[in-house]
Each structure stands twice: as structure tokens, then as C-alpha cells.
Amino acid sequence: MARLSISHLKKRYGELTVVDNVDIAVADGEFLVLLGPSGCGKTTTLRMVAGFIPPSAGQITIGERDVTNLPPWKRHCGLVFQSYALFPHMSVAQNVAFGLEMHKVPAAERGPRVAEALRLVQLGGFDERYPRQLSGGQQQRVALARALAMEPQVLLLDEPLSNLDAKLRLEVRVEIRELQRKLGLTTIMVTHDQEEALTMADRLVVMDRGKVRQIGTQRELYEKPADRFVAGFIGRSAFLDGEVTAPGRFRTAGGREIACAAAGTSGSATLALRPERIAIGSEADGLPNRFATQIVHASYLGAQLDVQVALDGQERMLLQIPNRPGLSEPRPGDTITIGWAEDAGLVYPREA
Ligand SMILES: Nc1ncnc2c1ncn2[C@@H]1O[C@H](COP(=O)(O)OP(=O)(O)OP(=O)(O)O)[C@@H](O)[C@H]1O
Ligand SMILES: [Mg+2]
To answer: Which GO terms describe its cellular component (predicted)?
Structure first.
């Protein structure tokens, strides 16, 4: 249980910078989720914190201790790998005790610590089983128990749920979170599953190509995405490319004039709109931005319909229409009027 601070952290492999000047501060007892596309540097960041990969530059502190140059076993981090990495020829109890033996914890102390860790993950009584005699979810919990037995100050979880089926994921998600809260463990979890990230995190870090794009709560990331990448990565957005022609004026590539809230951006830009901010049919009456569009594609998802529309035959936009009684089924080719308020759209400089 400690604050964890990562500053100006960098990792280079030859010419390639895979972690680029990362700054992250995790509060005592906070559950932080690191989220980003494959290859963006999540595992590398986590392993530098755990001490398995030496940073090219930067500093890592846990509590008051600068651990940047300490070996893994002196950092008091518990790391759970994506693949569990249990020893197949060792029983559950031996697997959990392994780290304690390596740390020369006296035998008399090992037994109670193993038992306590297994009790925490609800595997009391599984001591003598072997990994092959356990389900995926149980193996995952053994891996967690192994980390907890070390009484870590910081818990690091690298995609701990990715090998589990959908139903088990939901259960283990809740178990991990409850345990983390109960123990007050400062935690960083890596995932590329957005829903998992949103449901579990106190705060999220969105990474892309080695860089932190934004750190914030779910609401901050969704309602005030820092850039176009975050707007597309967290939740869904419709994007219109174009140009800011004057303060509060945006012209789409197709030549449509759109009123938007004034922003500092000028020149080439992208307008991002959350689907729920787009009004449809008569609800669009009186809105400053109101256009007739053609339905390109419609998917029935039960509680809602996802509808792709085209503005001027080219720009595609996503609508989400709540499924209400009496709703007429949208069909490709139909015309539908959409509209949005000036402040509904967020304007970002165009990204390459
Ligand atoms: N030892 C290495 N030498 C060279 N490049 C490496 C090495 N290890 C990792 N990389 C590169 O660093 C980048 C980041 O890798 P990392 O494993 O941190 O990604 P990740 O965000 O965890 O991705 P994923 O979601 O797929 O697990 C990748 O482009 C990877 O190819
Ligand atoms: Mg990874």
C-alpha cells in the first residue's frame, strides 16, 4: 500500500522508442487501468515498474523509495502475468509458496501466509491440487494468490482476465476489485478491453504508440476526450473531417457549414460527435445543425439500433436509436433527418 509514481519513463530498443516519456501518478489504494491498442507499450511499462525491464530513462518511486535501480525482489510489487505462468509440476500450495521460498521467508511463516493468500482468493482446501486439475478461473486465482502472498505494496496485473470465458471474466472482475478494495492495494491493471477498463477502474490511462494520451475518470475521458484518438477509443464517436473556417464555423469536406462551439483550433480539423448527442427526425427541429441523410446500414441490437448514415453521399456517421415501441425499422436507402446543438460537437486538429 503506497503511492506509485512514474516520471519521464522511457524505453528504447535501438531506434525504436516503445515507451515515450510516460508520467503516471497512482494514489495510495487506487485501482488504475492502463488501456490502449496492441503494441502501445502497456506491458513494457508494467514490467519496468516491476523491475524486469530496465528503463532507458526516467524514475519510478513507490512510497518514499526510489526503486528505479532496484532488482524486482526489492520492489515489493506483485505481478500477475497474462499467462498465469504456474509451475505445472507443483501443487497449488507449492506454487503460492515459491516466491516466499525465493525470498528466504522462514518455513514456519510460509504455511500461514500461503493459507491466508488462498483464503483471500477463495481457494482454501485446494492446496494439494495441481494446475491441470483446476479450471482457468481457478488457475488465475492461484496466480493472484501467489502475488498476494508476497504482501506487495503495489499490485500489477497484465491482462489477468484475457484467458477466461465471457461469464467467468465478469465474475473474476468483481472478485479482483473487491479484494483489491478490501486490502487497499495500489494497483495498475493492463487491458485492451474497454468495457473491462470502464467497469473496474478508479481512473484510466489511455496510451497510444508509447505515449500517454489522457489520464482521467470514465466521465472525463468520455465527455472531454483530450484528442481525436481518445474520442474514438473510449466509447463511440461519429467523425467529420473538414476545416475550421472561422471561430465557431466548421466546413465539412463535402462543403456543409456546421455551427460548433468556439475552440482554439483552426485549419484542418475533425468534428467528433457522440451518438447520443445526435437528434433524429422531429427531435432535430430547431437545432442549428440539421441535415437530411441517407441510411447506409442498420443493425438491430435489441435495446438499440445502430444506424450508419451518409451525409452528402460521403461522410459516414453513426447514430444509436433507442428501441422504443412503435419505432419503424430503419432501412438502407431511407432518408432520415438528424440534428445537433452547437456544443454537441468537439473539434480537434486533424491527425495524420
Ligand atoms: N525486446 C524487444 N525488442 C524490441 N521491441 C520490443 C521488445 N519488446 C517489446 N517490443 C515492442 O515494443 C512495443 C510495445 O510492446 P508491449 O508488449 O509493451 O505492448 P502492449 O501494449 O503490451 O501490447 P499488447 O496489447 O499486444 O500486449 C511493441 O511494438 C513491441 O513489438
Ligand atoms: Mg501486453
So the answer is: ATP-binding cassette (ABC) transporter complex
Task: Pick the ligand that lies closest to the CA of residue 41.
Answer: 1
Residue 42 in contact with ligand 1 by CB distance below 6 A: yes
Which parts of 63-153 are beta strand (E)?
65-66, 77-80
Nearest in space to 161 (alpha carbons), one of 177, 182, 183: 177
pLDDT at 163 (0 to 100): 74
Q: Which residues contact 277 (CB under 8 A, 6 or more apart)?
A: 340, 341, 344, 345
19 CA: nearest ligand 1 atom: 14
Domains of the chain (ranges, CATH numbers): 4-228 (3.40.50.300), 237-349 (2.40.50.140)
pLDDT at residue 263, rounded to an integer = 66
pLDDT, residue 2, reads: 67
Task: Identify the nearest ligand to the CA of 40 by its number.
Answer: 1
Q: Could you read off the pLDDT of 150-208 as tens digits, one per residue?
A: 889 999 999 988 777 788 788 888 888 988 999 899 999 999 888 899 999 999 999 99
For a substitution probing ligand 1, which of 11, 13, 189 has the most ligand atoms within 8 Å of its CB? 13
Least confident of 77-86, 202-211, 277-286: 77-86
Q: How far is the CA of 47 from the centre of ligand 2 (A)?
A: 10
Specify which residues 317 forms β-bridges with: 309
Identify which of 33, 38, 44 to mutate to test ligand 1's pocket (most ligand atoms within 8 A of the CB).
44
Phi, psi angle pair for 253, to nearest 5°:
-60, -30
Neighbours of ion ligand 2 (CB under 5 A): 43
| Per-residue pLDDT tens over the stretch 247-275 | 899 999 889 999 998 667 788 999 999 99
Retrieve residue 107's grid coordinates.
518455513
